TrEMBL record:
<feature type="transmembrane region" description="Helical">
    <location>
        <begin position="226"/>
        <end position="249"/>
    </location>
</feature>
<dbReference type="InterPro" id="IPR019108">
    <property type="entry name" value="Caa3_assmbl_CtaG-rel"/>
</dbReference>
<feature type="transmembrane region" description="Helical">
    <location>
        <begin position="12"/>
        <end position="32"/>
    </location>
</feature>
<keyword id="KW-1133">Transmembrane helix</keyword>
<protein>
    <submittedName>
        <fullName>Membrane protein</fullName>
    </submittedName>
</protein>
<keyword id="KW-1003">Cell membrane</keyword>
<feature type="transmembrane region" description="Helical">
    <location>
        <begin position="83"/>
        <end position="101"/>
    </location>
</feature>
<keyword id="KW-0472">Membrane</keyword>
<feature type="transmembrane region" description="Helical">
    <location>
        <begin position="184"/>
        <end position="206"/>
    </location>
</feature>
<dbReference type="Pfam" id="PF09678">
    <property type="entry name" value="Caa3_CtaG"/>
</dbReference>
<keyword id="KW-0812">Transmembrane</keyword>
<feature type="transmembrane region" description="Helical">
    <location>
        <begin position="151"/>
        <end position="172"/>
    </location>
</feature>
<feature type="transmembrane region" description="Helical">
    <location>
        <begin position="121"/>
        <end position="139"/>
    </location>
</feature>
<feature type="transmembrane region" description="Helical">
    <location>
        <begin position="44"/>
        <end position="63"/>
    </location>
</feature>
Length: 275
């Protein structure tokens, strides 16, 4: 049975993951600085978001969180699968790459973004299934126990959690270019469905540990509560992004109507609602 995860000094896989995260953060900041040097506008808040996301990833793989073993594991899950992906997506890294790369690299990146596999993955229900479905598979099957017995499998699990969380956040926010930008309704429905499935999974963990584990009741309940409330906070932030986009789109639509009717003397169609 699994009683605890490994502690002590970070292993080689953790150090490698931290190095990749730091390398990505440095590359982003250098590219953003180069854009500004040539006179392009790139908000500093995006740099801060990417730097914060990088810091969360590095801390998650190098620092053992406080609490019991399963609580510490769940802290890493929320950090790498939810918080860091949201921060990285808010920084719009693909948009930065498209503006930074030379024409040849830009064409190759656009070809990847427009490919059929990316189009399938960028579908909100597919992204939600990969994200939350993977967690149900991890915690409600013997996979969690097997991963703790095989370090290479645990490394793959962590990689999937991060990649699936990054994909889901990117699709729900739709800040960077996608093969086909999903509508607000579809993205909202995917977020609500994934949030509900995530909450139900957290409640089942509160009552029943992953198969094959021997976790202390207090550790199990603390981890389940962290998963539940931590997930809620990130999902609220994702919903806020969608809401702001919907609000901005409405403002642009009203502005277009105003320009079309400026020379006719007729009020925009939306103005009649208050009459």
């Amino acid at each position: 049975m699994v009683h605890q995860h490994g502690g002590g000094q970070p292993g080689g896989a953790a150090l490698l993951a931290a190095a990749f995260a730091l390398g990505g953060g440095v590359a982003y900041l250098l590219a953003a600085a180069r854009l500004r040097r040539r006179g392009d506008r790139w908000p500093f808040v995006r740099d801060l978001c990417f730097a914060a996301g990088t810091a969360v990833l590095v801390a998650a793989v190098l620092v053992t969180p406080p609490g019991g073993p399963f609580t510490a594991h769940m802290t890493q899950h929320v950090a790498t699968g939810m918080v860091a992906p949201l921060l990285l997506v808010l920084a719009r890294p693909i948009t930065l790459a498209l503006r930074f790369l030379p024409s040849g690299g830009r064409r190759r990146l656009l070809a990847v973004l427009r490919s059929r596999p990316v189009g399938v993955l960028a579908n909100p229900p597919v992204a939600a299934l990969l994200d939350v479905g993977g967690l149900w598979l991890l915690y409600r099957t013997p996979l969690f126990t097997a991963a703790h017995e095989r370090p290479w499998l645990m490394a793959l699990v962590h990689l999937h959690v991060f990649a699936a969380g990054l994909l889901f956040s990117a699709v729900v926010c739709s800040l960077d270019p996608l093969p086909r930008r999903p509508g607000v309704v579809l993205r909202s429905a995917a977020l609500i469905g994934a949030g509900g499935a995530h909450a139900v999974l957290a409640k089942t963990l509160y009552a029943t540990p992953p198969p094959g584990t021997g976790l202390a009741p207090g550790d199990l309940s603390a981890a389940a509560e962290l998963m539940y409330y931590g997930g809620d906070l990130v999902e609220i932030a994702l919903a806020a992004v969608i809401g702001l986009q919907w609000y901005a789109a409405g403002g642009r639509r009203l502005a277009r109507e105003g320009r079309r009717t400026a020379g006719t003397g007729e009020p925009p169609a939306s103005a009649s609602y208050g009459q």
